[in-house]
Amino acid sequence: AQAAASAPGFTRDREDLSRRPLTTAEVRWIIPPWPSVGAAGPAQRSPDVAPLLREIVSRPDWVPGGAVVFIITGHGRRAARAAENAAGGAAVLELRLAKTAAEVAAQAATAYRLRLVVAEPSDVPPGRVFDVLVQGQPAVTGWRLEGQPRRAVWLDLGRVLLRDRLEVALRASPGSGGPPVLSGLILQAEGAPP
């Protein structure tokens, strides 16, 4: 991952990725070949990236809401499609707390406030419309992203109850001008200072 409290956006500048400083933590990912575009299964699932995130959020200059850049290096060919070009092709970020199944079953759900941070990634006409599902249930239907390119817009999803896992899925609504985008999320325990 990039060693930054909030990584800047990508540019078309030469060596934009290779010049970025990296965290000392790294995660090895032996990616098996996948020959077809649209594959989504165990071969496309990354290993646990918690060591990378732990190093970033431990920085003294880190504040909630910052951007994280994961840099993947290696050799080989993988057939994939950019999320901007595939209405249902966006990656899914899954967060899990480090507890055993018995501990999770015994614990009461904790209330959190969930906010998504979204930004139009490029200078394209507006028109992205998407649905947001939280824990597999519809949270927002037909939300329209209306903002300037590369300017964050907050979508407050309000109170969610969680035990050990948060799953957020974005799906393009019919007639959307592009696939859904997600720049980040903020999960804040109820009663915690902002």
Overall description:
It is built from two helices and seven strands, in the order H-E-H-E-E-E-E-E-E. The mean pLDDT is 80. With 194 residues, the protein is mainly beta. The strands form two sheets. Strands 1-6-3-4 form a four-stranded antiparallel sheet, with no helix packed on it. It has a three-stranded antiparallel sheet with strand order 5-2-7, with no helix packed on it. The chain folds into two domains: 1-80, no CATH class; 93-189, Jelly Rolls (Sandwich), CATH 2.60.120. The chain is 7% helix and 26% strand. It has helices spanning 50-57, 101-106; strands spanning 94-96, 110-118, 129-134, 137-144, 153-162, 165-172, 184-189.
General form: globular
CATH class of the largest domain: Mainly Beta
- Gap from first CA to last CA: 26 Å
* Number of E-state strands: 7
| Percent in helix | under 10%
Count of spatially separate domains: 2
What structural class results from the helix and strand content?
Answer: mainly beta
Strand order of the largest sheet: 1-6-3-4
Number of helices: 2
Mean pLDDT: 80
CATH architecture group name of the largest domain: Sandwich
Estimate the strand proportion.
Answer: 25-35%
Low-confidence stretches: none
Rg, Cα atoms, Å = 18 Å
How do the helices and strands follow one another from N- to C-terminus? Answer: HEHEEEEEE
Largest sheet: 4 strands, antiparallel
Q: What is the assigned CATH homologous superfamily of the largest domain?
A: Galactose-binding domain-like
CATH topology of the largest domain: the name is Jelly Rolls
